[in-house]
Design goal:
Elements: H1 3-24, E1 44-48, E2 64-66, E3 69-73, E4 80-91, E5 101-102, E6 104-107, E7 113-118, E8 127-134, E9 147-148, E10 155-158, H2 164-169, E11 176-183, H3 192-197
Antiparallel strand pairs: 1-3, 2-10, 3-9, 4-5, 4-8, 4-11, 6-10, 7-8
């Protein structure tokens, strides 16, 4: 091969190599980043606007005392399912030596509230526990942000037939109300009792 041909072949090879190199760098990339923002925590509060501590002192059988637990969803963006758990003291109503009956009755259950569970009497603590759901037996009602429920109940009444002997069988005379709130989405269960069970899972 003469010198001119050698130069021509070298030039052609150089062009081929150059084009091949350029084609090798025709590349592409793509990325998608989805931004997720977490909602605010569920925040609830429990209030009793009608309760006056002095009204609960020195009460007698048959007394009716105003007590109106209300749950408020204080969250800024998040709706909530809410529950009220009421623990009521018990006494021995039939003189068999065991606490068997609630010392107080809950009056005028509020609109939107449904009793979904009543425990057996805890004979050790002498209490009975009621669980109310804001909703029905089959479906919860979402409590919107910055919204309050109706009162779970409006008053309590001490048993009217309570004797001195029965009074002595009662344990604590405190009524304890616990309020619970949970997010409405992503729970994996829908039945009110199943949702309430998530608080203990």
């Amino acid at each position: 091969m003469n010198k001119k041909k050698s130069i021509a072949v070298a030039a052609i090879l150089a062009v081929v190599l150059l084009i091949g190199g350029l084609l090798a760098y025709f590349t592409d990339t793509d990325t998608k980043t989805n931004v997720f923002t977490l909602g605010d925590n569920v925040e609830i509060s429990l209030s009793e606007t009608a309760w006056v501590a002095a009204n609960g002192e020195g009460i007698h059988p048959g007394a009716n005392i105003a007590k109106n637990p209300i749950i408020t969803n204080d969250s800024t963006t998040t709706p909530a399912y809410v529950f009220a758990e009421i623990i009521v003291p018990c006494y021995d109503s039939n003189a068999d030596g065991t606490a068997d009956d609630a010392l107080f009755t809950l009056n005028s259950i509020g609109s939107g509230w449904t009793l979904i569970n009543t425990s057996a009497v805890n004979t050790t603590n002498k209490t009975i526990t009621y669980v109310y759901a804001y909703g029905t037996n089959t479906a919860m009602t979402a409590l919107a942000k910055n919204t309050s429920t109706s009162a779970v109940f409006t008053s309590v009444t001490l048993k009217s037939t309570l004797t001195e002997a029965q009074k002595a069988t009662a344990g604590t005379t405190n009524i304890v109300v616990h309020a619970y709130g949970i997010q409405t989405d992503g729970l994996g269960v829908t039945a009110p009792m199943a949702i309430f069970g998530l608080f203990n899972s």
